DNA sequence: GTGAACAGTTCAACTCTTGAACTAGTTATT
DNA sequence: AATAACTAGTTCAAGAGTTGAACTGTTCAC
């Protein structure tokens, strides 16, 4: 394939991801009202998935500085959704866990996001969605390689 | 398909888009250095695509309040990348256009974004990328329907 | 035991965002 | 023509997320 063709493909990808991200982002934000921001929801989601995790882990997953995570976690902690537990053996490490309240609000928020997004996924046939996800996951997987170097 | 299956699909979609967006976002940001933020780049890109546009148009496309656009445009204007031209007939309307400098910096930034993203797209076969884009564009298209109501 | 490395936090400065209040211009109504 | 209603855009205060530098504690290696 020549250069021009790749530019066309890039342009199409750019346009599609722009639209999907802005639209979904806006709908999700609206659904979560003043309870959680999108970043707060994603933070709870990540911690929930792994049971507990550290600031450093979150910073790597979110591709941001650790201080950005500290800020988000502090807000979630003030709202009573997250615990900060120091490791007994290595006292530098702080484990982040959901509180009871945090579990509840995460459940609620995840349901809301599902309600917003799933109707749009349901317009696809079972075969289409499988094909799409396989390719999207492939993209996610390669974009994740060589992840150690930056930040 | 039953509910559980849709939840699985939703989870897979959530995970893939999270990874791709965070990774690409981080790489693009790094490439654009202190010249442009991602939102500024997307704003220049949108204006470039349509030749000129208004604050209201941008706000709808980006799914944000008009005042958010005013802020971004003001910064781009201070940097000398954007003109504000009042419509002669309807003097409420302000047309936003790229300056010479704006055209140049957009060209540069678009090239940078292309350099970051295209290597990851190139791992797909021609058939795969076409299938993926068709489905992604379908998702973009349906997510864009019913766009008039909100905000 | 000292110095290097690491985990996490604090801080100032910036960008983006909202929502309310506002200016200025246009359209509709009577 | 005068008033009211609407529209385009801006300003402002407040809040969220981000960076990068400087900092506190803690652990590890020599």
From TrEMBL, chains A, B:
One Pfam family recorded for the sequence: MarR
Domain HTH marR-type stretches: 1-141
Domain of life: Bacteria
PROSITE patterns: HTH_MARR_2
InterPro entries membership: HTH_MarR-typ (IPR000835), WH-like_DNA-bd_sf (IPR036388), WH_DNA-bd_sf (IPR036390)
Keyword DNA-binding: yes
Transmembrane parts of this sequence: none
Record's keyword terms, sorted: DNA-binding, Transcription, Transcription regulation
PANTHER family: TRANSCRIPTIONAL REGULATOR, MARR, TRANSCRIPTIONAL REPRESSOR OF EMRAB OPERON
Protein name: MarR family transcriptional regulator
Lineage of the species this protein comes from: Bacteria, Bacillati, Bacillota, Bacilli, Bacillales
